[in-house]
Amino acid sequence: MFQKKKQVKIRLHYNEMSLKEGCSLTLKGDQAHYVRDVMRAKPSDAVMLFDGTYGDWTCIIEEISRSGVLLRVEALSGEYMKTPDLTLCISLIKPDTMRSVVRQATEMGVTVIQPVLTEYSSVRNINIQKCWKWAVEAAEQCCRQDVPVIKETMGFYDLRDLESQLILCDETGKGEAPARVLCGVENLGIVIGPEGGFSEKELLYSEAFAGKMSLGSRVLRVDTAVVAALSYVNEHCLS
Amino acid sequence: MFQKKKQVKIRLHYNEMSLKEGCSLTLKGDQAHYVRDVMRAKPSDAVMLFDGTYGDWTCIIEEISRSGVLLRVEALSGEYMKTPDLTLCISLIKPDTMRSVVRQATEMGVTVIQPVLTEYSSVRNINIQKCWKWAVEAAEQCCRQDVPVIKETMGFYDLRDLESQLILCDETGKGEAPARVLCGVENLGIVIGPEGGFSEKELLYSEAFAGKMSLGSRVLRVDTAVVAALSYVNEHCLS
């Protein structure tokens, strides 16, 4: 346990400039606060930075001050592992639940989060900047090397224009088993509705552009449905 | 939408007396408050009660007062679907996360929740009464007909005495793929560690009594790991 506490494990997303061996940079604001005050790092401690392009860079802290944390980039450690394309089309939901969904979708390997306004959506707006921040935090913690893109909200009926092959999670009992509907699908988009599900009109209309997957006989809350659906995707499409 | 709002959809767990057609009972306390003040039900509205033994009973509200809600049991609607045995052994974690885990595990079909004290558990106590309440709420909402049992906490090394076949979710990269490790397992117990995972000693010791499953290359938070693991179980053992 002692060794566990001593070892500084800091991993941050950094895209303000391109990184290369030997270059220096200064972390500011929230990132400096996190390194200095939350993790209480000291000069010569290591910090990992990932830029979403090359992978994880090992950096060494050279100086810590109130104005920022000066780092020197040491080396690229390990190759960049691009997360395979996977879109989550998620109904607008209350911010607390959206925060869980963004975090968990990031952990489960979603590369694009597409907010969707549906008939039963309980809210009509989303703060995309906040969603991006939650996604960055989750990527930092789950050791992903990229951060999902958060798109602008689109209406449910515009989903048909997406290039992804869409699979809609249907709680009315009419969806097919995951193994059946997901097998062999590429460039996948999973569509998850709000509490209350999709309207009859939405379900009918979606038959023209989306397959339907069942998540079982129990009624799942949105966050559970997201992780369950993405687990089936990982199992049947990406493994 | 109008019809959707008019229709009262109330489903409650009730085990204070055994139910049968034609009998009357009075909901008190929180349940009465929920029916009367939250759902604003009226006399002659329907309420579903499930007792964990026979299934869902349709009841009709006869009278609503400050002291309680009087119901008459009409009929048993649909056969009892027992949830297949499935144990979740979960490290003690902070109450907020435990609340999510209990809810999501209930949605995903766990029948026994076994709290476990591990070396890196961030808390050392659990309020079992609260966990039971969260499980009841989740069962009511997800349309399960039974409520998971919440056990007293046990130490990690006592897990070997459980009768379940244990599969431990291992984030060190040494676990096997879900399809491989779960195939054909019955009376399953999934073991999930705290943030920070299991200690080396725990991992070594567990080899004597548990298989190891990988949940992928990313580091999952506890709630995500629980739903992902249970999704794989649903896919490979229970479907």
From TrEMBL, chains A, B:
<keyword id="KW-0808">Transferase</keyword>
<dbReference type="GO" id="GO:0005737">
    <property type="term" value="C:cytoplasm"/>
</dbReference>
<comment type="similarity">
    <text>Belongs to the RNA methyltransferase RsmE family.</text>
</comment>
<feature type="domain" description="Ribosomal RNA small subunit methyltransferase E methyltransferase">
    <location>
        <begin position="84"/>
        <end position="233"/>
    </location>
</feature>
<comment type="function">
    <text>Specifically methylates the N3 position of the uracil ring of uridine 1498 (m3U1498) in 16S rRNA. Acts on the fully assembled 30S ribosomal subunit.</text>
</comment>
<keyword id="KW-0489">Methyltransferase</keyword>
<dbReference type="InterPro" id="IPR046887">
    <property type="entry name" value="RsmE_PUA-like"/>
</dbReference>
<dbReference type="Pfam" id="PF20260">
    <property type="entry name" value="PUA_4"/>
</dbReference>
<dbReference type="InterPro" id="IPR015947">
    <property type="entry name" value="PUA-like_sf"/>
</dbReference>
<dbReference type="GO" id="GO:0070042">
    <property type="term" value="F:rRNA (uridine-N3-)-methyltransferase activity"/>
</dbReference>
<keyword id="KW-0949">S-adenosyl-L-methionine</keyword>
<dbReference type="Pfam" id="PF04452">
    <property type="entry name" value="Methyltrans_RNA"/>
</dbReference>
<dbReference type="InterPro" id="IPR006700">
    <property type="entry name" value="RsmE"/>
</dbReference>
<feature type="domain" description="Ribosomal RNA small subunit methyltransferase E PUA-like">
    <location>
        <begin position="27"/>
        <end position="73"/>
    </location>
</feature>
<protein>
    <recommendedName>
        <fullName>Ribosomal RNA small subunit methyltransferase E</fullName>
        <ecNumber>2.1.1.193</ecNumber>
    </recommendedName>
</protein>
<dbReference type="GO" id="GO:0070475">
    <property type="term" value="P:rRNA base methylation"/>
</dbReference>
<keyword id="KW-0963">Cytoplasm</keyword>
<dbReference type="InterPro" id="IPR029028">
    <property type="entry name" value="Alpha/beta_knot_MTases"/>
</dbReference>
<dbReference type="InterPro" id="IPR046886">
    <property type="entry name" value="RsmE_MTase_dom"/>
</dbReference>
<dbReference type="InterPro" id="IPR029026">
    <property type="entry name" value="tRNA_m1G_MTases_N"/>
</dbReference>
<keyword id="KW-0698">rRNA processing</keyword>
